[in-house]
Write a structure and sequence with these properties.
The complex is a heterodimer of chains A (157) and B (169).
Chain A: H1 4-11, H2 14-21, H3 25-51, H4 61-89, H5 91-95, H6 98-124, H7 131-154
Helix pairs in contact in A: 2-4, 3-4, 3-7, 4-6, 6-7
Chain B: H1 3-11, H2 14-21, H3 25-51, H4 61-89, H5 91-95, H6 98-119, H7 136-158
The chains are: A mainly alpha (157), B mainly alpha (169).
């Protein structure tokens, strides 16, 4: 079964139509998506840089992870809500867009990896980053970079 | 030479035209510009949240400025270089763009906020370094920073639209 008709249906929902018909809505939602990007990127960088032995050093990765988590969760929700709205307004374009599928695959992996392996490694990290934690941090940063690059490229394709 | 004739001259330079017409260079520079937001604004936001007393309360403020500001500065340098190149690729149109002008104003205000913070309350940081909630002037700097950088980001995104462009031709 092809997903194409589902994407078509999403695009024709009242929400999709409203965003498409408005001059302002799309850029405003995308502006909020970018604000979320700055915050989620900063928080992911902060914790993973700590695991790599960069940036903040007096606090353990576990302390930073715990302090940063509400901001990670909040910015992730903002990203998912604004991203879904953007998607709804151009679902069919996304269906035919390789960058979109690349981004969504990266996003799924990045979220799962962050909430399982990465979080466990951060919470276990009391002192300087072990080499295991460093590898995990690098994988995590690469996954999120894939999400960002893929996302930007949706607009170029 | 007026700013307008400067933009006009830039617009006709061969490198500007090459950048504007490039298939890969312009999108790559723009992607780097956007993704560096995480490094620059993202880590600056960590300091702002600390200044507001919202999180990282056990971390000394001076620890954040010492360890994170070098990264924020590196991010800012990448932002400026890529930003200048993006302007250089499309100078005349960008010059006439209302959102670009708004962004420049917000950038100047954000810069004044940074200067005011560092030359004022931050000089006495040793007296409030470990306060869970920093003094009012530091909180103000954090709040202004969040709002102004958000405004820079939103205005920057809107440069793509020419709704209110000044006619410069």
């Amino acid at each position: 079964m092809s997903l194409q008709p589902i994407f078509q249906t999403i695009e024709n929902t009242p929400v999709g139509l409203a965003i498409r018909d408005s001059q302002w809505l799309f850029p405003i939602i995308e502006g909020c998506h970018l604000l979320g990007l700055a915050l989620i990127g900063g928080v992911v960088l902060l914790v993973n840089m700590r695991m790599l032995g960069l940036g903040l050093g007096k606090e353990s990765a576990a302390e930073l992870e715990r302090d940063a988590r509400p901001y990670f969760n909040g910015s992730l929700i903002l990203m998912l809500v604004t991203g879904s709205l953007l998607f709804t307004s151009e679902a069919v374009k996304c269906y035919n867009n390789q960058a979109f599928w690349f981004k969504m695959s990266s996003l799924l992996l990045a979220i799962i990896f962050t909430m399982t392996i990465n979080r466990r490694a951060a919470l276990a990290g009391t002192g300087g980053g072990s080499s295991g934690a460093k590898v995990i941090a690098i994988i995590n940063l690469l996954l999120w970079t894939g999400v960002g690059v893929g996302g930007r490229w949706i607009g170029f394709s | 030479m007026s700013l307008y004739s400067f933009a006009q001259w830039l617009d006709q330079t061969p490198w500007s035209i090459a950048l504007h017409e490039s298939i890969w260079a312009y999108p790559i520079i723009e992607s780097v510009h956007v993704l560096t937001l995480c490094l620059f604004v993202g880590l600056a936001t960590v300091l702002d949240l600390r200044l507001l007393g919202l999180t990282f309360k056990k971390t000394a403020v001076s620890e954040i400025t010492e360890k994170l500001l070098p990264w924020t500065t590196a991010g800012f340098i990448v932002m400026v270089i890529t930003g200048v190149l993006l302007f250089y690729g499309i100078p005349l149109r960008t010059y006439g763009n209302v959102f670009f002008r708004a962004k420049v104003i917000f950038l100047i205000l954000a810069g004044i906020n940074v200067w005011y913070f560092h030359s004022g309350i931050f000089k006495k940081v040793k007296t409030w370094d470990h306060d869970a909630v920093p003094p009012a002037r530091a909180r103000m700097a954090g709040a202004f920073s969040l709002v102004l950088w958000a405004a820079v980001i939103i205005a920057g995104r809107f440069i793509a639209y020419n709704w209110f462009d000044k006619s410069v031709h």
